Write the structure tokens for this entry.
Amino acid sequence: MGLFGGGYTKEGPGVDKNAPKKKGVFLYFEIFFRKFWKLVQADILYFFTSLPIIMILYVFAPVSSDLIIRIVPDAKFDEQIMSTMQLGFRAMFAIGLFTLWGSGPASAGYAYILRSFTREQHAWILSDFFAKFKENFKQGIVVVIVDLFVFVLGLNALMFYFSCFTGTNSGIWLLFAYITFIMLLIYTFLHYYIYQIMITFECSIGQLYKNSMIFAMAKLPMNVLLTVIMLILLYSMFIVINPMLALVFSAFLWIGVMAFPIAFYASKTIDKTLLNEHILKNKSEKDENDNMDWEEEE
């Protein structure tokens, strides 16, 4: 049996049709453990197809010796320890932002796999991933280019405002920094929905961002909670184990552990709102057409 295929000739125990339907967090954990090995396979594929973006984020991570000293002000480090900590912080930043923002076409393929898990539908890890990768390639590339632009612009703006604040001690610069941070945070929430909408509906880039922004704002409390959970999972992994081992662990599982709660919630939310509205709209249009046909026959 290959890593990403095969093994479907033997049926598992499955789910009892007469069993009561689970909801919410209970359904999430049931799906997570039932699809665990498929999630591992999807993680490996997603990680390695996204390596260029991960490397870019790693190289441009805003991590310096001064930043680490500010984070751990009472500690004293020699050169080797400082170098190791920089590596760890860079890796943690790259994996964290990649998990939250995605990586373009690869995120479309990964979003489809996670949506299939959430809907309890079958998905072929390799073929379905690359099918959605190709199908959403253009929009995925646009999104990742916008992400890189926002990343560079936002990072430089934050560094500039904090530099001005430390130099002048003027609160106005700190206010600008906070506003920029909040804007970047809302932009982060937008990504929880953008790839799910991309693979579910045919829409323009403008509609994609508009609908994603609506969800980012309308579901603000839950988006904040999901972000906090993800950051706790990220921090715990890089603190508990060696940074290099943490990267390997991310590739094989932890990205899915961090990303699946977000994808699960986003997919369920989109299905309850946009998808239901889309179905009702099509049904209404069909009923109108049927009425017109009936009138013509009369």
